[in-house]
Design brief:
eight-stranded antiparallel β-sheet, 41% strand, 376 residues, 3 helices, Jelly Rolls, 2 domains
């Protein structure tokens, strides 16, 4: 009787169409067998796997992410998670870009923290459902501590190996998190506020189950608040080994970073590429790095800090740089850290088909190695 009266009262308060939207069906985001509907951004084939019961396991190695194929604006995401090891670390991203940020294994977006309780507490973070913007995203926190991170009002997460339930509501740039049945963390004025949903691998072995989503109606949105949509990039590096590359002396796989030591030989893909291409390479040099080079189908690009076209765009030694290139009909256009390189011009020695090579001239760190095909 009470339930019928409550339903009648709610029906008076909300239009019928809105009531239908709010009580619509949730749909699963995984099929329990494979990653259909998701994009492996920068992790290995071994990172994510389903067991016979459809439970999704993340090994935590390498650090990186998978994302949905589809972008979302307004939605409710529910899932259960548990860490298999104390002090485990993971996360859920919403409203994220298509690939990772410069010099980072993670996307620009809003992160919902998934930390195991034994990780500990501090003035800068908690282990019970923090929410915060990351790598260029923005958010105004509720229950903040002077920064942009929102802290939970209660400690409700359960320790390993117990299961926890998250309910994440995202509406018009506002986000809230319910941990095990109660809203404890909130933020608003988020940018972006339309983008991809990501699951993060960050060292801890994590299980996920009952991952489901209810889409809510989109509302008018400023294009500046929309994350970068899929550009077709795929990663050339697994983060756990040199699969896809010809073995070369002096190279080491350090999780999401590839390191070339002093005297390292060129590292070349086993795959050859044809046609029009786009590529991204992040690199970090030191005073001993010399002039590293990138070769694309036999044509070599020198990342020479003494070249005024290049040096003026590079970050200081020890900081990450992002090289973005497009090869269209034999013509090269380049950006370094988002700024165009003047007079990039023709690629001398360009072959119709060939690999990509990283050619060090001293110690260099490399990351976020992405490539895509471009239309003719």
């Amino acid at each position: 009787m009470i339930r019928r009266l409550l339903s009648a009262a709610l029906g008076l308060c909300f239009p019928a169409a809105l009531w239908a939207q709010e009580t619509g069906d949730f749909r699963p985001l995984f099929n329990g067998k494979d990653l259909s509907g998701w994009v492996v951004v920068n992790t290995a084939p071994s990172t994510w796997a389903f067991d016979a019961a459809g439970l999704l396991t993340c090994t935590g190695k390498p650090i990186g992410e998978i994302r949905t194929e589809k972008m979302y604006q307004n939605f409710i995401l529910e899932l259960e998670w548990r860490h298999l090891q104390p002090k485990g670390n993971a996360g859920i991203f919403v409203w994220a870009d298509d690939i990772t940020a410069r010099g980072q294994p993670f996307h620009r977006g809003i992160e919902v923290q998934v930390l195991e309780n034994a990780y500990g507490q501090s003035d800068g973070y908690s282990t019970h459902g923090d929410i915060f913007p990351i790598h260029g995203a923005r958010m105004t926190p509720v229950n903040g501590r002077g920064g942009d991170r929102a802290f939970p009002t209660e400690q409700r997460s359960k320790p390993s190996p117990e299961w926890n339930h998250y309910r994440i509501e995202c509406r018009d740039g506002a986000i809230s998190l319910a941990v095990n049945g109660k809203v404890v963390t909130q933020g608003h004025d988020c940018q972006p506020r339309r983008g991809y949903i990501c699951l993060e691998s960050e060292g801890g072995v994590v299980h996920y189950r009952n991952v489901r989503l209810q889409e809510l109606p989109d509302t008018p949105i400023d294009p500046a608040h929309i994350a970068i949509a899929n550009r077709g990039y795929r990663s050339l590096y697994t983060g756990v080994d040199l699969a896809g590359w010809h073995s070369a002396a002096g190279w080491q796989s350090n999780d999401w970073v590839l390191t070339s030591g002093a005297g390292a030989a060129a590292l070349t893909t086993t795959e050859s590429f044809t046609g029009n291409l786009g590529f991204i390479v992040d690199f970090k040099t030191s005073k001993d790095s010399g002039v590293p080079r990138l070769a694309v189908r036999g044509a070599t690009l020198a990342l020479d800090p003494a070249d005024p076209r290049i040096g003026a765009l590079l970050e200081k030694s020890g900081s990450w740089n992002r090289l973005e290139g497009q090869l269209l009909r034999g013509q090269l256009s380049l950006k370094i850290n988002g700024q165009p390189v003047t007079a990039a011009g023709d690629l001398t020695g360009l072959a119709t088909s060939g690999p990509v090579s990283l050619i060090p001239d001293g110690p260099v760190e490399w990351a976020n190695l992405f490539i895509r095909s471009l239309p003719e």
